[in-house]
Amino acid sequence: MERLDKILANTGRWSRKEVRELVRAGRVAVNGVPVHSPEGKWDPAAEFAVDGVSVSGERMVYLMLHKPAGLVSATEDPKQPTVLELLPDHLKRVGLFPAGRLDKDTEGLLLLTNDGVLAHRLLAPRRHVDKTYFVQVEGQLDETDVEAFSTGMTLGDGLVCMPAGLEVLGQPDTAIVTLREGKYHQIKRMLASRGKPVRYLKRLTMGPLKLDPALKRGEWRPLTEEEMAALRLAAGV
């Protein structure tokens, strides 16, 4: 049994102060009955609702972050700021970590969660969860680059890359890259091997999860129920 304000704050949607305000305003129900005491203790497996919308009391948290450049995808770093520093204090205490990393200078979609099973399955090579990126390079991309990506590449340092997608956009220095794996600096290394180093890189999707265009750099939001269902299906959980 745990305090109601703690259970709902652990979902990542509200701070404990916000939960207390919601409860006292009569906007929270447990097992279908309105409650008015944020200090009341309940089983986290009970049925919770806020404004009539069902809310899971599970401790798992799932956030979509629009990562800006300049932050490292890590839970802590002694020398550099991390993506977790963008979150409020109550979310820094629930064990969140990035599910798949983005380079310090790469922007875009980053999933933050404390669900290790889901993260592991999404990143497992055998599941082949596609990830897409917008890329801008020095030089001009052409059909020979598209073919090299589609057949798979072995780089000069011995890195073997699975076949990947490269769709050149209206400007020949821009493209959409689709990967089914995520090796260290992979896109940058692949394009550098083609003599077209990356100038800008942004992740757009991770499996069925798409970066919300309403999120500005540095902003985040909880995943919707629809997004969670699609991710679980992709991960096989």
Description:
This protein is of the alpha+beta class. The chain folds into three domains: 2-55, Structural Genomics Hypothetical 15.5 Kd Protein In mrcA-pckA Intergenic Region, Chain A, CATH 3.10.290.10; 62-125 and 208-235, Pseudouridine synthase I, catalytic domain, N-terminal subdomain (Alpha-Beta Plaits, 2-Layer Sandwich), CATH 3.30.70.580; 130-206, Alpha-L RNA-binding motif (Alpha-Beta Plaits). Helices cover 22% and strands 27% of the residues. The chain has six helices and 17 strands. Strands 7, 8, 9, 10, 13, 14, 15, 16 and 17 form a nine-stranded mixed β-sheet that branches. It has a four-stranded antiparallel β-sheet with strand order 3-2-5-6. A two-stranded antiparallel sheet has the order 1-4. A hairpin with a 2-residue loop joins strand 2 and strand 3. Helix 3 packs across helix 6. The longest helix has 11 residues, at 225-235. It is elongated and about 65 Å long. The two termini are 27 Å apart. The mean pLDDT is 91.
Task: Please work out how many helical segments DSSP would assign.
Answer: 6
Structural category is: alpha+beta
Kindly identify the CATH topology of the largest domain: Alpha-Beta Plaits
CATH secondary-structure class of the largest domain: Alpha Beta
The domain tally reads 3
Oligomerization category of the chains in this entry: single chain
The percentage of residues in β strands lies in 25-35%
> Main beta sheet, described?
9 strands, mixed
The named CATH superfamily of the largest domain: Pseudouridine synthase I, catalytic domain, N-terminal subdomain
Question: What Rg is obtained from the alpha carbons, in whole angstroms?
Answer: 21 Å
Write down the secondary-structure element order: EHHEEEEEEEEHEHEEEEHEEEH
Total strands:
17
Helix coverage percent of residues?
10-25%
Mean pLDDT: 91
CATH architecture descriptor name of the largest domain: 2-Layer Sandwich
Low-confidence runs of at least 5 consecutive residues: none
Shape: elongated
Distance between the termini: 27 Å
